[in-house]
Amino acid sequence: MKALKSVLALSLAMAVSSTAFSAEKNVATDAAKNTIQTMKQDTLKQGKNFATEKVSKVKDKVLDTKSAVENKAKSAKKVVEDKATSMKESVTNTKDKMADSKNTIESKAKSAKKVVEDKATSMKESATKAKDKMADSKKTAETKAKNSAKSAAENAKTKASEKAKSLKDKAKSYVGEKININKADAKTLQNLSGIGEAKANAIVEYRNKVGKIKSVEELSNISGIGEATIEKIAPYLSF
């Protein structure tokens, strides 16, 4: 009986212990769950706060960057607009200068063209006058040349006639009187037909160099005296 009681008591104690342990286990589990839930909530809250702060900082930084970019963009836009305005004014000024230069060049070109045309007209008129003058001069020169040639021909004809008459008269005067070719001087020898000053001097030089001329044929040895001249003077020579 005692043993049975002991077993029953032990069983009861174990049952109580098991129930108590189970209850404690449930309490511990609930406490752990609550703790974990609390920690989770705290962690989430802290993470949310951190994320909110981080996002806020990033947002502020983005806003600052955006503001800086906008300011730089405005400044750059202002610079570009000012540069464009300056370039536009420069282009306008250049265009005006080019227009003025074009007008000046066209004016100078017209003036130069007018000068060239006037010069060409003047030169043309001068050329025409010179041509007319040359034509008149040519005509005058031709007239003078014709008159001069005519006068010279007439003078030559007159002189030839006079000389022929003189030679004829001389020939007549020497028909009965011959010239001694070895004694006559150069002036006397010139009275012979066809013998001028040069031939007369040549005869005298030959005579002085060679000596007495012995025949008519010997005259052919003298420079400038040919057969035709010898035939003319032979009848009027003596040796």
UniProtKB/TrEMBL annotation:
Q: Which UniProt keywords apply?
A: Signal
Listed under GO cellular component are: type II protein secretion system complex
User: Where do Low complexity bias regions lie?
Assistant: 146-155
Q: Where is the Helix-hairpin-helix DNA-binding motif class domain?
A: 187-206, 217-236
Any one Gene Ontology BP term: DNA repair
Q: Span of the secretion signal?
A: 1-22
**Alphabetized GO MF terms:** DNA binding
InterPro entries per record: Competence_ComEA_HhH, Endo/Exo/Phosphatase_dom_1, Hlx-hairpin-Hlx_DNA-bd_motif, RuvA_2-like
Going by the entry's taxonomy, the superkingdom of the source organism is recorded as Bacteria
Compositionally biased, Basic and acidic residues: which spans?
Answer: 94-145, 156-167
Using the UniProt annotation, give all residue ranges assigned to the region (Disordered).
78-167
NCBIfam families with a match to the protein in the record: competence protein ComEA helix-hairpin-helix repeat region
Q: What is this protein called?
A: Competence protein ComEA
Q: Which organism is it from?
A: Avibacterium gallinarum (Pasteurella gallinarum)
